[in-house]
Amino acid sequence: MPLVSLNEVLGKASNEGYAVGAFNCNNMEIVQAIAGAAEEEKAPVIIQASQGAIRYAGLQYIVGLVNLAAHSVSVPVVLHLDHGTSFEQAVQCIRSGFSSVMIDGSQYPLEENIALTKKVVEVAHAVGVTVEGELGRIGGTEDDISVSEAEAFFTDPAEARYFVEQTGVDALAISIGTAHGRYKGAPRLDFARLKEIREIVPCPIVLHGSSGVADEDIRKAAQLGVSKFNIDTNIREKFVGAIREYLPAHPDEIDPRNVLKPAREAATAIIREKIRLFGSSNKA
């Protein structure tokens, strides 16, 4: 299938009370794992490219790989920029073929964030591309974007409604207690805040830093209105973990295909598990 926008998968998810998985890719094997897992689960899926992925693989390789993957499966696939850092980068991704972009202006004061996000929305919507914005900062590290615990702050519900009204974003990433990367302890999510935001914000809600969040908390967040969960760390853990297991048992192996095959299989398995957790199996 051709690539689709966020609206084509999140609208249905929001209406029916499930969430769509947004999985970060870094190479061909992970793209294959994401698309393969979605096809096996008959689920819509969002394939994301972060700053690190763009630097590592290159923008055109990512677009090429994901387009090929999307046309090889029968389920809806979104190609989404994760944590876009500037208007220029968002435009570059749109021109390169991304069907959705995120512009992260959460480090700026509210009105500056609104101005930047609105500028991206105007350009993206003119060509049918969707936009995710962010209000409130997520702790932890996402490639080269780092937010300390002291800097992280939760999303204010009234500001969230104002932000969406002023920018026209298609989805809003909020901060309610998750973090990027590995957690030092069990995260404590502010479900009351999530409920209040969902009641007054018209667009789908996104939760970043979902790797490591307890399954019961994921289910509750989905029930309360989160329509998109971002997963990266869990995939890296399983992918690299499979390689670490394989190499000591095969010390003479020199064929990278044999090394990466179990890694791809491990990534596929965790992605399928997350898709079922989010409730999006058989929702394509």
Describe it.
The chain has 284 residues and is an alpha/beta fold. It has a single domain (7-247, 257-278), classed as Aldolase class I (TIM Barrel, Alpha-Beta Barrel). Helix content is 50%, strand content 18%. It contains eleven helices and eleven strands. It has helices at 7-16, 28-41, 51-57, 59-71, 87-96, 110-126, 157-167, 191-200, 215-223, 233-249, 256-278, and strands at 20-24, 45-49, 77-84, 100-103, 130-135, 139-142, 145-147, 171-174, 179-180, 205-207, 226-231. An eight-stranded parallel beta barrel has the order 1-2-3-4-5-8-10-11, surrounded by ten helices. A three-stranded mixed sheet has the order 7-6-9, with no helix packed on it. Helix 5 (87-96) packs parallel to helix 6 and helix 6 (110-126) packs parallel to helix 7. The longest helix has 23 residues, at 256-278.
List the uncertain runs: none
The computed structural class is alpha/beta
Can you count the beta strands?
A: 11
CATH topology: TIM Barrel
Percent strand equals 15-25%
CATH class: Alpha Beta
The rounded Rg comes to: 18 Å
The CATH architecture comes to Alpha-Beta Barrel
How far apart are the first and last residues' alpha carbons, in Å?
12 Å
Succession of helices and strands: HEHEHHEHEHEEEHEEHEHEHH
What is the mean pLDDT?
92
* Residue share in helix: 40-55%
Number of helical elements: 11
**Quick one: biggest sheet?**
8 strands, parallel, barrel
